[in-house]
Amino acid sequence: MLNTPPGPTLLGIDVILVGSMLAGFATLAVLYAIYTAITIRDPMQKRVKALNERRDQLKSGLMVQGSKKRTSLVRKTDSTEKMKDTLSSLKVLQASQLEEIQQKLAQAGIRNKELAYYVLFARMILPIVLGGFAAMMIWGFNYWPDLTPFKRVMAFAAAVGAGYKGPEVYLSNIISKRTDAIRKGLPDALDLLVICAEAGLTVDAAFNRVARELGRAYPELGDEFALTAIELAFLSERRQAFENLAYRVNLDAVKGVTTTMVQTERYGTPLASALRVLSAEFRNERMMRAEEKAARLPAIMTVPLILFILPVLFVVILGPAACSISDAFAAKPGAQ
C-alpha cells in the first residue's frame, strides 16, 4: 500500500486542509448572500403586528373597566409564574433589577415585559451550567492536561463570568445597534416633522406620517414613531406618550426631542422652529462625530500598517536586491 506524501505545512498546520476549510466557508457565504439577495422580506411586517397588538391593548384599556382591564393588559403564562416564584423563593428577584431589565428590553425593541423574568432566570442558571461544564472538562475529563492550576481556575472563572454577563452583553449589543440606527435617521425624521408641522398636521398625525415615510429606510425609528402616534391617540395624557418614547430609546437626542414636545404641548410654543433648531444641532453633531472618526483613522491604521503592509513592502522592494546580492556572492567562488 502506497503512503501518500504529507501536504505542505506552515507552522505545523496543514495548508491544504486550512485552504479547503476556508473555501467551504467562502462557498457557504456566497450561497447565503445569494439567498438573501433573491429573498424578499418585508421589514415592517413584524413591527406592524406588534403595533397592532399595542393598539388593541390601548383600546381594551379604554373600554374595559375594573379587574377585567388589569387582566386584559397583563399577559402572564405558567412558565413566567414559575420562574417568578422560583426567583422570589431564592431571594434574587429585586424590583430595581426587574425594572432595569424591562427598560433594556424596551430599548432593544422587545415589547414583552415578561421576558425580563427569563433574562433574570438565565443569568442565574447559565453560570451554573457553564461553570459545571467547564469544571467537568477541566478537572473531570482533564481535557487540557498542560494547563497550570492557576490557568484552570481562571478558565473556570471565565466560564462562570460569561454565563452571568452573557445575557446582559447580548442585550447591550442589540441596544447599541438599534440606537445607532435610530441616531442615523433622527435628523431626517425631524426635518419631516417640521414639514408636517408647517403643513398644519397635528402632532400625532405628523408622527404617523413620518413613521410611514421612514419605515423602509429606518425601520427602528419608524417603529418608535408609529408607536408614539398610537399612544398619542389613545392615552389620556399626551405627555406620557412622549415620556414612553424617551423610555424606549437610549439616546439623549430623543430625550431632547421629547422635552421639546412636552414644552410645546404645555406652553404652546412654535413646534416647527424648535424642531428645525434641533435638526440642525443633530446634523452638526453627526458631522462632528464623522470628523472625529476620520481624525482617529491614522492612529488606528498604524498597527495594521506596521504588521501587514510594511513587511510586504520591504519584501517587494528589498527582495530582488537581496536575491541579486546572494547570487553575486554565490558566483564568486565558482569564478575563481
Account of the protein in words:
With 336 residues, the protein is mainly α. The protein has 12 helices and 2 strands; from the N terminus they run ββαααααααααααα. The chain has helices at 15-38, 45-63, 66-73, 78-89, 95-107, 115-140, 149-198, 203-214, 219-234, 238-248, 252-267, 271-335; strands at residues 9-10, 13-14. Strands 1-2 form a two-stranded antiparallel sheet. Strand 1 and strand 2 form a beta hairpin. Helix 6 (115-140) packs antiparallel against helix 7 (149-198), helix 7 (149-198) packs across helix 8 (203-214) and helix 8 (203-214) packs antiparallel against helix 9 (219-234). The longest helix is centred in the C-terminal third of the chain and has 65 residues, at 271-335. The relative contact order is 0.06.
What are the defining features of this structure?
2 strands; mainly alpha; 1% strand; single chain; 336 residues; two-stranded antiparallel sheet
